[in-house]
Amino acid sequence: QMTQSPSTLSASVGDRVTITCRASHSLRDWLAWYQQKPGKAPKLLIYDASRLQSGVPSRFSGSGSGTEFSLTISSLQPEDFATYYCQQYDRFPMPYTFGQGTKLEIK
Amino acid sequence: EVQLVESGGGLVQPGGSLRLSCAASGFAFSNSWMAWVRQAPGKGLEWVANIKQDGSQFYYMDAVKGRFIISRDNANNSLYLQMSSLRGEDSAVYFCATWELRLFTSWGQGTLVTVSS
Predict the structure, then answer these.
(1) Fewest CB within 10 angstroms: A96, B45, B55, B89, which?
(2) CB atoms within 10 A of CB B32
(3) Above 80 in pLDDT, residue B21?
(4) Rounded to the nearest 5°, which phi and psi values hold at A97?
(5) Does the beta carbon of A38 lie under 8 angstroms from any beta carbon of chain B?
(6) Terminus-to-terminus CA distance in chain A, angstroms?
């Protein structure tokens, strides 16, 4: 079980924002973050809790371990308004559970 | 560049069947685990199934076990999802994705499945 908060976040360009993801059991560092824009496929942003996927801007960062994780965007850009999902992958072969999502809206 | 193009979605009656396809290009498909992930309208992401490079291992979410079959054709760089006994709750956009180190690294644009009478 993955629980994200908040469900919706209103912010302005230039703001620093943080999204939280809590797991029902310890994931160690097996936590990823995805970004999804309306009508588009999700995109992997961060894996192993804090590692940036190739090509992802450095304003994105991840932190945490165990059961509490966060995604921070240091200075919001217009293209960052989207929905963000966390995903646990501590177990093989399954399941691979996503959080319910956090919609980042323009204030 | 990785390209994944899904097809085969559409409107189907409850209890019906549908076969989704995913055409892959731009990477070594036969060396890649692959997966299907779905998203119900206005809802979050839900992993459905994944399959090993040679098709010898595959795994399903509990809600689709016994009804969905994931398969692949490495000669044609294609991934499939055979869906049967479809229910309303299976209505979703179905994404094909590469699955690397337990991460969904590249995604297609999805194909919409609507189960309704």
Answers:
(1) B89
(2) 22
(3) yes
(4) -95, 135
(5) no
(6) 30
Nearest CA in chain B to A38: B42
Asked if A74 and A19 touch (Cβ cutoff 8 Å), the reply is no
Handedness of CA A78, A84, A22, A87 (dihedral sign): negative
A101 reaches B (C-beta below 8 A) = yes
CB-CB neighbours of A105 under 10 Å? 11
Residue B102 touches chain A, beta carbons under 8 Å: yes
What pLDDT, in 10s, does the model give residues B27-55? 999 999 999 999 999 999 999 999 999 99
Angle at B3 between CA A54 and CA A59, to 5 degrees: 25
**Between B72 and A106, the higher pLDDT residue:** B72
CB contact under 8 A, A95 and B61: yes
Other CB atoms within a 10 A radius of the CB of residue A54 amount to 7
pLDDT tens digit at each of 107 positions of chain A? 899 999 999 999 999 999 999 999 999 999 999 999 999 999 999 999 999 999 999 999 999 999 999 999 999 999 999 999 999 998 877 778 999 999 999 88
CA pair distance B30, A70, nearest whole angstrom: 35
Contact B110 A41 (CB under 8 A): yes
When CB atoms are compared, the residue of A44, A93, A100 closest to B103 is A44
